[in-house]
Specification:
heterodimer; A: mainly beta; 11 strands; 0% helix; B: six-stranded mixed sheet
Chain lengths: 115, 110
């Protein structure tokens, strides 16, 4: 059974550009969450999607957005990139959203460097 | 607000047991998790415990939960060099998102 797949694994962007990251959850999983990991701030929740609906959103500016497709694949987009957006972006999948989604699996992440 | 705290470093000798501790604040947490992160890699789910349990064992891993003190620990028996990594404690908060500790770097001495 394939795990959580994130693409691209590494990318370099210039300030002001935008970026789209993709996540394919484990087959059968309908909940996808995104997290940002930086040395200074640690792991922070971005948003969670379930059945194509955003269920929860973290405390990030509107430049960070996401969506989920009918096949549960998800994308996140960051517009007008800033140097501080350089981070590892991690996608997590679980069967269900909410308290019944007890096993949460992560992908290898997408390393974004903004120069 | 919700917060998770853990020590930043733990150094143990190969073959000894490692005990990584974590405290959390949200008493309504349903699940608590331990993840492992090796350099350059994503997060590997090690184990989790439901809040109405006080212990869970899985091979070399033992999780202890003291709900009264909001204290969670992960014990790794017979620590090996392959256990070198950063270990993250996380609670599933009231908004179902994961609230993370800063991670404990486990250093293995030969």
């Amino acid at each position: 059974k394939a795990g959580v797949t994130q693409t691209p694994r590494y990318l370099i962007k210039t300030r002001g550009q935008q970026v789209t990251l993709s996540c394919s959850p484990i087959s059968g999983h309908r909940s996808v969450s995104w997290y940002q990991q930086t040395p200074g701030q640690g792991l922070q929740f971005l948003f969670e999607y379930f059945s194509e609906t955003q269920r929860n959103k973290g405390n990030f500016p509107g430049r960070f957005s996401g969506r989920q497709f009918s096949n549960s694949r998800s994308e996140m987009n960051v517009s007008t990139l800033e140097l501080g957006d350089s981070a590892l972006y991690l996608c997590a999948s679980s069967l269900e959203a909410g308290s019944s989604g007890n096993t949460i699996y992560f992908g290898e992440g997408s390393w974004l460097t903004v120069v | 607000g919700e917060d998770v705290e853990q020590s930043l470093f733990l150094s143990v000798r190969e073959g000894d047991s490692s005990v990584i501790n974590c405290t959390y604040t949200d008493s309504s947490s349903t699940y608590l998790y331990w993840y492992k992160q090796e350099p350059g890699a994503g997060l590997q789910l090690l184990t989790y415990i439901f809040s109405n349990m006080d212990m869970k064992q899985d091979q070399r891993l033992t999780v202890l939960l003291n709900k009264k003190d909001k204290h969670l620990s992960l014990r790794i028996a017979d620590t090996q060099t392959g256990d070198s990594a950063i270990y993250f404690c996380a609670e599933r908060g009231s908004n179902y998102q994961l609230i993370w500790g800063a991670g404990t770097k486990l250093i293995i001495k030969p």
